[in-house]
Amino acid sequence: MAGNRKVFEKAMRAGTNAAWDGNWDQAIVVYRRALAEFPDDVSALIGLGSAYSGAGQLEAALKAYQRAIALAPDDPVLLERIGKTREQLGQGKAAAEAYMAAAERYLSQQQATHLALVRWQDAARAYPDCLPAHAELLQYYQRHGQVREAVRECLTLAHIYQAQGQNDHAVQICHHALRLAPHNSEVLAALGGLRYAEQIAVEPGAEVSREGLGLLTAIEGPTASITLEFPVAPDVESVKERGSPIEITRQKALSDLAESVFEEEVVAELPAVAPQLSKVEIDALVGRAIDFQTRGKIEEAIAAYEQVIEAGVGRTSVYFNLGLLYQERMRFDAAIAQLEQAASYPEYALGSHFALGECYRARGRIDEALEHFVEVLKMVDLATVRREQADDLIQLYESLVSSYIAKGQREQALEFTNSLVEFLSEKSWEDKVVQVRQRLDALAQEGPILSLAEMLATPGSEHILESVALSQEYVKRGMYYAALEECYYALEHASTYLPTHRQIAHVLLAMGKADDAAAKSVAIADTYRVRGNVRQAMAMYHRALKLAPMDTVVRAKLVDLLISHGEIDEALEHYLILADSYYHLAQMEQAREVYQEALRLAPRGGPEHRWSVRILHKMGDIDMQRVDWKRAIGVYEQIRKLAPDDERARLTLMELYYRSNWPELAIAELDDLLRTYRENGKTRQQFSF
Q1: Could you tell me which of 69, 6, 74 has the C-alpha nearest to residue 38?
Q2: Most distant CA pair in the chain: distance in Å?
Q3: CA neighbours within 13 Å on the CB side: how many for 311?
């Protein structure tokens, strides 16, 4: 009889395991079994489609995905799978349509533009003549200041229109490209070819697609359904490429130097001797230096900047530019000396540290290069996070360099620096940083913050993050097994990338499997600990304890980690919770042993917390419950010594003395307590006795 939930769940688990092992035939069998119970379950249909795809049965996979999309028409991930399958089947145009539909669904969701971008790129790859895909890409690149990519899309659109015989519209596209990049040789060549082609008649059989007609109408007016929003001239400035951190800082240095010419006096930003030349002479030197530098006359520019410094002008912009010029001439020691002076000035720090990293790397001094490159990445990353996240992020970066150096991982450090340089040298790196931060924050959720460094240290991490993002989309739709499958796909490419494992823990928790999620979190924390990422390890242990607060083994691990890194007060808090857990499990001896360990640590804690007194009271309570009067007396006498005004300890001691048949000690304790009240002016308590 269909509709058996237990049979369905068992089959789905078996399907996921079989898919993970690459046993596609077995996966097909068990997913079919699951569908026999619930024929309209989207997760099962997706699993079946994936299994067919893995087995090379693409037509069957497409049918499974089409059944699923009929049940969940707004699911962009399903449309993406359909597009991918059609592309593998050689159905380029249909694949592009599916990719475009997926992009449209992503755009309707908040913060999913990066996923839409990838789908537009997929559509353009699957069907190179897909006009809507190239139009969307053009608009995206313009909005994000990626001029080179925008011009490339203009050229592609022009080529498509030319192939359709629509040379006049191809010319319009090229003119728009020239507004973005006025001197681009490829655009000028294309425009020249189009002008020549206008003299040749278009073949009568040439067809113009409906999509093409819609786009042409969009160029001519705002009425078309597909809109190419070309900006007017004032907007062109907003899409200029800023370049690498060095290029950004170099432009600032040149701008600052140019402005200095209009200052009334010579202003030294950094300590320097009094200027030896007049303002006019210094301005002339600065002007020559800027002119030589911008014209690529390196030696002449170096000589001019050296004269500026010899004249006693201590400007950060001069030190930075001279350092770059020395670097270009491979005079690395001289470059380092100048750049280190510029690095102390905040507005020049980013470019200076980047250039210093390159200089040290060129000298083969990888440790020093790593320090400067990590400083660059830290500054970039800190600009993308909230203030309350900054301290944790700073500590992550501080431990990163020491981790590479301490483990002697020279090759890994070199690979990391190469990835970092490549990432920050891309023209659109600033936009990319924001996109990656959004993905990392979505992945972190309630767990510890993730750094850009962790992403760069993992080859192919961008594709992995995309898979994780898809997994998150599946979780939102309650398609948990499909979400797990995406994670397993990501792990095939980077099995040790911990953010993927963290996503698996999130999926397990969403499925109601809190124990499994806690176990996964502990495994992640253990790995962070082995890698030396202490903050990350602590945060994951905390997360595991939220899911399993009575897990004494995990709490003991957290306590050890806190103690070893000087977090004494927090360690003592967890000691008390750990002992309390044993207490509630009726394991009194273990509870007392934990309190005893905490008592030895208590003197290192903050005095305002009165740790020793608090812990001794807990120990005394246990001894009282176990009717161990002698041990209890010893505990409360320690409390009396540490806190003479502790009324509870005094009263308990009096009771214990009487029970132990020591009335004279009880009376002496009472007298001493009354004397304390009298000395402290506590008359009311004195009369109450």
Answers
A1: 6
A2: 123
A3: 22
The predicted model scores a pTM of 0.58
pLDDT tens readout for residues 478-497:
888 888 888 888 888 888 88
Residue at 138: amino acid letter: L
- What residue segments make up the domains of the chain, in order of their start? 5-198+210-231, 245-426, 627-689
| Helix or strand (DSSP H, E) at 373 | helix 366-382
Tokens of 489: 């796909």
- DSSP annotation of 273 reads P
Closest Cα partner for 482 from 4, 72, 141, 148? 72
pLDDT computed for residue 116 by the predictor: 87
d(CA 495, CA 490): 8
Sign of CA dihedral 277, 279, 284, 290: positive
Is residue 403 classed exposed, middle or buried when 0-12, 13-18 and 19+ CB atoms within 10 A define those classes? middle
- The answer to whether 123 and 129 have CB atoms below 8 angstroms apart is no
3-state helix, strand, coil in the chain (%, to 5): 75, 0, 25
Q: Which helix (H) or strand (E) holds 258?
A: helix 245-260
* CATH 3.40.630.10 given to domain 5-198+210-231: no
Encoded tokens for 477: 């739709």
For the segment 349-369, the average pLDDT, to the nearest whole number, is 87
DSSP 638-653: HHHHH-TT-HHHHHHH
Angstrom distance (rounded) from CA 654 to CA 647: 11
Token reading at 202: 């278009």
User: Exposure of 223 by Cβ count < 10 A (0-12 exposed, 13-18 middle, 19+ buried)?
Assistant: exposed
Please provide the average confidence, as pLDDT, over all residues in the chain: 80
**For residue range 43-100, what is the model confidence (pLDDT) as tens digits?**
899 989 989 998 999 999 999 999 999 998 888 888 999 999 999 999 999 999 999 9
Distance of CA 480 to the CA centre of its chain: 23
Please list, in sequence order, all residues whose beta carbon lies within 8 angstroms of the beta carbon of residue 675, skipping any fewer than 6 positions away. none
- Counting every residue written for the chain, the total comes to 689
* Positive/negative CA dihedral, 640, 641, 645, 646: negative
Are 5-198+210-231 and 245-426 equal in CATH topology? yes
- pLDDT tens string 232-246: 333 333 334 457 888
Tell me the CATH number for domain 245-426: 1.25.40.10
Enclosing H/E stretch for 245: helix 245-260
CB 629 within 8 A of CB 656: yes
Question: Other CB atoms closer than 10 Å to residue 583's CB: what's the count?
Answer: 19
